[in-house]
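--- STAGE predict ---
source: upstream dedup step, 1 unique chain passed
mode: sequence only
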Amino acid sequence: MKHILTIIGTCFILFSCTKQIQVPTGGTNTIKYAEGFELIEYDNFKHVIIYKPFSKEVQTQYYLVGSAETETPTDGVKIVVPLSHIGVASNTHIGFLEALGLLDHVSGLCLPNSVYSPTMLRLYHDGKAIDMGDAMKIEPERAILANADAIMISGYGQGDVNPERLNQVGIKFIYNNEWTETTALGRAEWIKLVGALFCKDSLADSIFKHVDSAYNANKLIVENIENKPSIMTGNNFRGTWYMSSGNSYMASLFADAGADYYYQNDTTKGSIPLSIEQVINQFAGADVWVGSNGHSLDELAQMDEKHTWFKAFKDHKVFNFYRRTNAQNANDYWERGVVHPEELLSDLIWALYPELMTDYQPVYINQLQ
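--- STAGE serialize ---
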């Protein structure tokens, strides 16, 4: 087990240092798009700054070092890398680790029935990784049994119980808040944090450079189109329809795919809760509906007759992201799809402009029949 810090309250106290030092100047920030974290390289360590969800207020800081004797500032947690084993709370973390070839280092996961990766499932069934419970409320006893150097969790802000529960039993954790990003490329760039934890920086950089290049090349396909089809997304969930805000990674994907989106100029982040009446008022004439939770048009109609009122339904232009699912309905959209937004972008362009993608085979998206 790697030596990290003893956590007291919400502060990290570094016992291995005998004096406080300041963060040096002149480091290189390796982050291009992501807003939720910074990864700054210095000669003797890497400085990771994690921001609170949808904020520029620092949530925590990490100093990644090759030796426990390396002096670092005392305003963060010192982590000796590479890690040997890690626990993961989110399937998105599995996607990053699989892309880096690091799944054999995963010793704990949450809700294995929701995992798509065949490799991760095999490791779980072989007893190499244990179930730590619900991702929103990890079971401390199960987390201890994972015997990981640290557990990667998502930070949800107010009401987030995982940090306190893990602190109480002395389990070290690392935030990965990729879900808060406002662009798909920013979300994918969190692979650099995962790579740094295992000294796979060069591989992570290489993967991301390929993704970045392919994504921006795909944008050129629709760059000069003037008459853009309108798009809607989401589903009616217990009387509320959660629509992507204008400052979300989905809205950025819509823009880059050449879609006209009602909330494209909205400046809020996350999701916008709407009534079905509001959605009908704003999106009844939308040309394309993506992200539906139905498997067929008949199923959508049975869920709610109001679904049949939308132009996209009448024109059979409704799509879900269920193409890569397994027998348990676990969806690779939440694993590989986070790492490879260039594939998601191609799928959306195919849905919006099939005449431009006649030979394309979608990766994640299905057209409902």
